[in-house]
């Protein structure tokens, strides 16, 4: 049976409380610099893809074995499991599209009840990060494209789609969805969203589900 509706979430600061790139940067002793650059990107002050490439360069030399420590620091957003359970109970599907990284999301997403996800991949050589991203970067346009592709794949009309995000790179997917929700969001995102969730609790989305 086809899903009745589709809920697409951003990952960092939405599905989870953390910004994963900052946690990885901590492993290189560059957390503060990367955090400042991430904040600027989320406010929409710089091009996301350009910003991501420069931030990933700061991760050069981090061993992949440190990902276990990064995963241990991940904090799921309050209400996330309740939301994914409610979506499934009502016949929906949960997707995550992230400007973050598969290396972390491949563990975190299924544990939180997410059905499908897409993110960037970090280039690795000899067990350490090279400071580059593999392939095409998941940016604002990529997030909107992913939402449309999942809706098409699962036979869900765009009129039955939700998008939840916090940063400027979420605005295109929020505009593509029938309902764009700003969650834990920057001012520019709150201003353009269809609805703003003010409490840091994803269970607040449940009453909006069909």
Model description:
The chain is of the alpha/beta class. It has a single domain (5-208), classed as 3-Layer(aba) Sandwich (Rossmann fold). The protein is built from 9 helices and 7 strands; from the N terminus they run E-H-H-H-H-H-E-H-E-E-H-E-H-E-H-E. The protein has helices at residues 20-27, 31-42, 48-57, 67-72, 80-89, 102-111, 140-153, 171-176, 187-192, and strands at 5-9, 92-101, 116-125, 128-134, 161-165, 179-183, 195-197. The protein has a 7-stranded mixed beta sheet, with helices on both faces.
Provide keyphrases for this structure.
alpha/beta, 39% helix, Rossmann fold
CATH architecture heading: 3-Layer(aba) Sandwich
User: How far apart lie the N and C ends?
Assistant: 17 Å
CATH-wise, what's the superfamily?
HAD superfamily/HAD-like
Strand order of the largest sheet: 4-3-2-1-5-6-7
């Amino acid at each position: 049976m086809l899903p009745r509706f589709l809920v697409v979430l951003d990952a960092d600061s939405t599905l989870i409380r953390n910004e994963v790139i900052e946690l990885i940067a901590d492993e290189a002793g560059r957390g503060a610099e990367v955090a400042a650059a991430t904040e600027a990107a989320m406010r929409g002050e710089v091009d996301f893809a350009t910003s991501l490439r420069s931030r990933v360069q700061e991760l050069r030399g981090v061993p992949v074995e440190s990902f276990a420590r990064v995963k241990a620091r991940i904090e799921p957003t309050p209400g996330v499991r309740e939301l994914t359970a409610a979506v499934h109970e009502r016949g929906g599907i949960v997707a995550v599209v992230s400007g973050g990284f598969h290396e972390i999301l491949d563990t975190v997403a299924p544990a939180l009840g997410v059905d499908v996800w897409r993110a960037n991949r970090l280039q690795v050589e000899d067990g350490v990060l090279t400071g580059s991203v593999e392939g095409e970067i998941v940016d604002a346009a990529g997030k909107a494209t992913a939402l449309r592709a999942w809706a098409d794949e699962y036979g869900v009309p765009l009129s039955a789609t939700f998008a939840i995000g916090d940063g400027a790179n979420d605005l295109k997917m929020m505009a593509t969805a029938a309902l764009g929700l700003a969650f834990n969001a920057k001012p520019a995102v709150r201003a353009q969203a269809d609805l703003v969730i003010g409490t840091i609790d994803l269970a607040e989305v449940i009453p909006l589900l069909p």
